[in-house]
Backbone:
């Protein structure tokens, strides 16, 4: 059943059932309905339950055509299912045949492989199909099947009175024409959790195929054994559908590229936090994609239809940032010729993303604290209090805990922001994402530039994977964009990458004749500069026209420390 499945609307003695767009539908007499006026005796199926609509409490049973005699049996009274069954079973060939039949049914129920691979309601349908095909082998008859109460019967219709009695009274029934020339039928309920999930039914009009007490006992035992398998199949189907639904919920919309465990865990966390209205603090180094995370949270939230407004708190001067966030009234300061709405007002009904929030001044921190606590603000130069309906997402690459200890960031604001914390992993922490990201950026940039790029050359891949990427994803994107713009082939080659990425050659990459010559020339120039400067690092850097820090890096890259140490003695 759905949580809100259907509604019964009563007006006097009239009653209408209205389906509330339920997942599995509402059925009246086996037919799905959206809205239906009920009549005396109508059966309404909701989920696994069947209700009967009665204007009068006492309903006379429909007359049964013909002079039939019936025998009924409670499922628990079957001699094959009873604990006392062994003592009452006659030692006959018929009893041995029935026991072998039950063994065969038991084997079938416990070994059917199609059940494990089935999806949703298919599991119960597979079991129903297996039982139906086996039925006439178990009990001699002309026709047989497994019928769902309230559902359309299919190609042929069983005796409606027998089916109704078995369903309503939850008993097994053996019905036979008194004069021996009419229809004979035997049916038993397949009861799951106190409800009749299905009816096993066999009938015959052939006088040579007559049913007896033994057939009733056998069919009742088969129904009792199948009930457990049916329940398991139903539960399995529900679990599979629920798992599929949850998996769909986890398939959040985002623009994050990667296959690593860290990025998958981040996506899972986004899927959990997005539907709430909680403030989220996103931590991570510069260039790790914190705004992408914020946009993914907004896109999968209940505010997705509202605006997403982003502002970089480090990009503007304090006075401009205050006006940008809160807006201003006309004449609030020199140059305020008209009223201006701030970013917070523009984000009404949606999400505001405050990037680099650690750069806010104490004054703006106090104003933002009021926004988080009371969801209200005033424009610069204004006196009117404006109510805000928005969600706040914030990001920083600073250690706010340390900033609080140093008195640079308000502790109360930090606590307000630190409700839910997500961390964007650095690219060096998820190296397996480097190539997928590079291929993604190459494809994107190639489309923007109108170029055809088929992929990355093997040596280019090695360089990309061996580099530490201190600038994270943003640095990788810039490097690939440069390679696409300056490259001359359909493939991104190692020489298309920025020089600083190729400074340290991986062991897997063999140097070309040109690269060896360039490296030899660099070594010679550096050694000559140190010789001219009497091995003083600062003087050598000036001679070379390089920054001292870059010269240190060059010496480390070319492995010249030992050479310089020996030569400088």
Residues:
């Amino acid at each position: 059943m759905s949580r809100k499945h259907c509604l019964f609307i009563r007006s006097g003695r009239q009653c209408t059932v209205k389906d509330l767009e339920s997942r599995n539908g509402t059925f009246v007499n086996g037919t799905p309905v959206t809205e239906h006026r009920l009549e005396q005796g109508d059966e309404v199926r909701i989920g696994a339950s069947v209700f009967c609509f009665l204007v009068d409490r006492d309903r006379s049973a429909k007359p049964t055509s013909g002079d039939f005699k019936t025998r009924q049996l409670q499922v628990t009274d079957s001699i094959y299912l009873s604990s006392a069954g062994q003592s009452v079973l006659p030692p006959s060939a018929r009893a041995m045949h029935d026991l072998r039949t039950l063994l065969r049914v038991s084997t079938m129920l416990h070994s059917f492989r199609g059940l494990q691979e089935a999806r949703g309601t298919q599991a119960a349908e597979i079991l129903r199909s297996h039982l139906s095909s086996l039925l006439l082998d178990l009990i001699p008859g002309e026709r047989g099947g497994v019928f769902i109460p309230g559902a359309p019967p299919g190609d042929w219709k069983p005796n409606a009175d027998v089916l109704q009695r078995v369903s309503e009274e939850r008993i097994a029934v053996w019905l036979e024409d008194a004069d021996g020339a009419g229809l004979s039928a035997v049916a038993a309920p397949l009861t799951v959790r106190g409800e009749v999930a299905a009816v096993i039914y066999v009938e015959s009009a052939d006088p040579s195929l007559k049913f007896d007490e033994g057939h009733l006992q056998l069919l009742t035992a088969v129904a009792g054994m199948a009930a457990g398998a049916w329940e398991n199949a139903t539960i399995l189907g529900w679990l599979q559908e629920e798992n599929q639904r949850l998996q769909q919920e986890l398939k959040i919309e985002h623009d994050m590229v990667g296959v690593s465990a860290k990025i998958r865990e981040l996506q899972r966390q986004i899927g959990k936090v997005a539907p709430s209205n909680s403030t989220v603090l996103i931590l991570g180094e510069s260039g790790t994609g914190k705004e992408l995370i914020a946009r993914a949270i907004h896109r999968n939230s209940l505010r997705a239809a509202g605006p997403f407004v982003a502002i970089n708190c480090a990009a503007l001067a304090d006075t401009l940032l205050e006006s940008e966030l809160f807006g201003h009234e006309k004449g609030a300061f020199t140059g305020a010729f008209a009223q201006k709405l701030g970013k917070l007002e523009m984000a009404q009904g949606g999400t505001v993303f405050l990037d680099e929030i650690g750069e806010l001044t104490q004054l703006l921190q106090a104003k933002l604290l009021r926004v988080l606590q009371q969801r209200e603000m005033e424009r610069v130069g204004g006196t009117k209090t404006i109510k805000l309906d928005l969600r706040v997402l914030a990001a920083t690459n600073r250690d706010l805990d340390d900033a609080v200890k140093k008195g640079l960031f308000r502790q109360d604001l930090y606590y307000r922001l630190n409700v839910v914390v997500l961390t964007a992993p650095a690219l060096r922490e998820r190296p397996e994402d480097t190539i997928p990201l590079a291929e993604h950026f190459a494809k994107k940039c190639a489309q923007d530039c109108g170029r055809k790029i088929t992929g990355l050359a093997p040596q280019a891949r090695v360089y990309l994977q061996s580099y530490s990427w201190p600038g994270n994803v943003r640095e990788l994107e810039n490097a690939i964009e440069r390679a696409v713009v300056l490259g001359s082939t359909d493939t991104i080659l190692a020489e298309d990458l920025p020089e600083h990425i190729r400074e340290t050659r991986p062991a897997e990459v063999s140097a070309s004749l040109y690269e060896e010559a360039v490296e030899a020339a660099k070594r010679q120039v550096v050694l000559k500069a140190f010789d001219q400067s009497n091995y003083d690092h600062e003087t050598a850097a000036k001679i070379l026209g390089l920054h001292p820090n870059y010269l240190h890096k060059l010496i480390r890259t070319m492995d010249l420390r030992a050479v310089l140490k020996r030569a400088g003695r």
Remarks:
- The longest helix spans residues 213-250.
